[in-house]
Amino acid sequence: MAADNGAASLDMIQLDIRLQVMTAVTLAVGLWQVLMGVLRLGYLAVFLSDHLVKGFTCAAAFHVFTSQVKLVFGIRGLQERYGPLKLVYFYIDLFRRMGDTHIPTLVVSLISITLLYLTRVFINGNPRVMKIIRVPFPMELMVIIFGTLASYELDLESEWGVKTVKHIPTGLPAPVLPPFSVIPEILARTFSIAIVASAVLISLAKIFATKHNYKIDANQELIALGASNIIGSFFLCIAVTGGLARSTVQESAGGSTQVVSLVSAVIVLIVLVALGQFLQPLPMACLGSIIMVALINMMKGALDVQKMWKVSLIDASIFMVTLLATVLLDVDYGLVIGVLYSLLVFAFRMQYGRVAVLGKVRGTSTEIKPLEDPMVDEVPGIKIFRLHGPLYSGNAESFFAKIRKAILSYEKVVSSYLSPVPEPETTEIEEITGTEAPQPSSESSQTEITMVRTKAEPQHIKPLRAIVIDCSAISFIDIVGTEKLLRLVKECSKRGIRVVFTACSDSVRDILYLSGVAAVLPEGNFISSVSDAIEEL
Q1: Which residues are within 8 A (CB) of 401 and not within 5 positions of it... i.e. 6 or more apart?
Q2: Residue 221 CA: distances (Å) to CA of 34, 233, 240, 281, 530
Q3: What b/e readout covers 245-261, taking b as 16+ CB neighbours within 10 angstroms?
Q4: I want to staple 68 with a disulfide (CB 3.0 to 4.6 A). Which of 200, 288, 379, 406 is the partner?
Q5: In terms of pLDDT, which residue wins out, 227 or 433?
Q6: 496 pLDDT exceeds 70?
Q7: For residues 124 and 251, is the Cβ–Cβ distance under 8 A?
Q8: Sign of the Cα pseudo-torsion (438, 442, 444, 447, in order)
């Protein structure tokens, strides 16, 4: 007897230690989140792109959906799986144990799912019906009420073996101070928990904000989440974040504002304080069915990849990488991989920003478009470039490499037409290029002529006299970018080629003046538009 009492006492001590560590972790996570909100680090949420968020929440919905499957089928004793590939292992175990399906539980689940789905499709999802009833029909509440009554009257747990909610502790725990002495030891390790919890919350907030057309303040969300964890740590609460299942159920029931969250919190408080005993007969299958039906639309988001694929292959890849990583590995792994891949794509796009070569639309004098358009002709003697994005150390080298390549290609085309060009013009070109004009064979010359004639007739070929850089899409230029520009201007000046900047914003113009680029340019090399530059040149 003494040994049993000693073992029980030891278990209580271990439980108390675990609770203390848990509350300390909750407090530390809350402090991190409040600190991030106060430091205005919510702007980092911009790296949670819409495609990443959709892929992550869609995959997280699969995880939550899977967690309810065993409740719906009533299969007991399934091994709990953790870590990478846990969903794969779970479904392997599930299919092996399909013969152990509890039929009464499955019947309860099928009735609940049918009622919930039909209500969603034919009542709450029907505009004609909604015009009449105005408010979404609360079938989730009906399933809980009638499921509890049916379970109580038919004694589903004792007579049929249906698993129910059973005992719900009433009341709130007394507030207890977390062990502050433990916090320094766990502070660094709780930072990752705070990051993942914050990312999950902001992802959910962005999903519902997009759906219901309202704005969110990421800093405010961080402070609110941190405050919840700090206060909860005094009541033996584990660290919290946005609940995918609960938020989805609440939204599917028609709630879309903070008022419904307040009402929901009050109802939960009432249940904890006074009504918990009345929900003890509620079958767990009813709760699982409510969550699964609520997540169907979110899981259907996986089908959006086809639409994304048609619009942008890169954005679709962000969605798929995040979704597959989250489904196959786990929620935390998937989020980290999705963010890292998104940053990699962002860096790639910044480094290899699109450079468009522009020309004049045939039959117009002012309309400028990329040369990919068959109705656009290159302006003779002028090469026009537009960089979409900032000009900085990551893409400056590739941008100017494309300009140099274009200059050499243009001069090569010009040299292929030197033979029919009058002598004075030929001499001028030789002075600019610094090389003797080659005399190509008739075969190679014909090849070059065929290539050029797709854009201009041979008689319109003129020596390159100007490079126009359209700055309308350049947001900023860093020091490396200005150094490359300065080098380009000097190189072109030696070749007798004028460099002109058009449509510069005030900030870009200031950078060009402060860096000394403008000082090496002749007067009039800053022009308001590309069309004006063509007219002047």
Answers
A1: none
A2: 9, 18, 13, 37, 45
A3: bebbbbbbbebeeeeee
A4: 288
A5: 227
A6: yes
A7: no
A8: positive
Considering only residues 91 and 456, tell me which one the structure prediction assigns the higher pLDDT. Answer: 91
Site of tokens 């307040």: 262
Structure tokens at 297: 């639309």
- d(Cα 438, Cα 412) in Å, to the nearest integer? 9
Region at 456 (left for phi over 0; alpha for psi -120 to 50; beta for the rest): beta
Question: Which residue type sits at 415?
Answer: S
Tell me whether strands 355-361 and 382-387 are parallel, antiparallel or unpaired. antiparallel
pLDDT higher than 80, residue 446:
no
Residue 428 to residue 415: CA distance in whole angstroms:
12
Token reading at 379: 């302006």
Amino acid at 374: P
Beta bridge partners of 279: none
Whether the per-residue pLDDT at 14 is higher than 80: the answer is no
SS3 label, residue 386: strand
SS3 of residue 500 by DSSP: strand
330: tokens are: 């786990």
The answer for residues whose C-beta is within 8 angstroms of residue 129's C-beta and 6 or more apart is 122, 123
pLDDT confidence band for 260 (50 / 70 / 90) = confident
* pLDDT tier at 454, thresholds 50, 70, 90: very low
Helix-strand-coil split of the chain, %, nearest 5: 65, 5, 25
**Please, what are the domains in the chain?**
17-349 (no CATH), 355-536 (3.30.750.24)
77-102 in b/e burial notation, b at 16+ Cβ within 10 A?
A: eeeebeeeebbeebeebbeebeeeeb
Separation CA 245–CA 295 (nearest Å): 7
